[in-house]
Amino acid sequence: MVSTMFSCGRVEDSTGKGNNKKPVVTNGNVLIVYFSRAGENYSVGHISVGNTAVMAGYIQDYTGGTAFEIVPVVPYPDGYDKMKEISQQETAGNKRPAIKNP
């Protein structure tokens, strides 16, 4: 099971008034770290880019940050049911996949 939380609100400028402009990153250091999977998706069929990767791209565009994808050494299967089976086994065993780019 994946839980995602979003916070909605307005961006405030230096006057304290809300606007629709992109936020200013004062220190210039924003890192977006994400783990995503493309392939067969339960609700929409086959996707070429994982849902989390899409959201990471939006965040990167919005903040000007750097995106870093966590990639497993052994990719998850393309098929949804097989991927779900492996994911459930990992969860039950409190295991995490080895990653390529630590």
Structure in words:
Helices cover 25% and strands 18% of the residues. Strand 1 and strand 2 form a beta hairpin. It contains two helices and six strands, in the order βββββαβα. The protein is globular. It is of the alpha+beta class. The chain starts with 10 loop residues before the first strand and ends in a 10-residue tail after the last helix.
Topology:
Elements: E1 11-12, E2 18-19, E3 31-34, E4 39-41, E5 45-47, H1 51-63, E6 66-69, H2 80-92
Parallel strand pairs: 3-6
Antiparallel strand pairs: 1-2, 4-5
Q: Characteristics of this structure?
A:
two-stranded antiparallel sheet; 2 helices; two-stranded parallel sheet; alpha+beta; disordered N terminus; 102 residues; globular; 25% helix
Radius of gyration: 17 Å
Poorly predicted segments: 1-13
- Compute the number of helices: 2
Sequence of strands across the biggest β-sheet = 1-2
Q: How helix-rich are the residues, as a percent range? A: 25-40%
Largest sheet: 2 strands, antiparallel
How far the N terminus sits from the C terminus, by CA atoms, comes to 24 Å
Order of helices and strands: EEEEEHEH
Share of β-strand residues: 15-25%
| Average predicted confidence as pLDDT | 79
Q: Determine the structural class based on helices, strands and strand pairing.
A: alpha+beta
Shape category: globular
Strand tally, please? 6
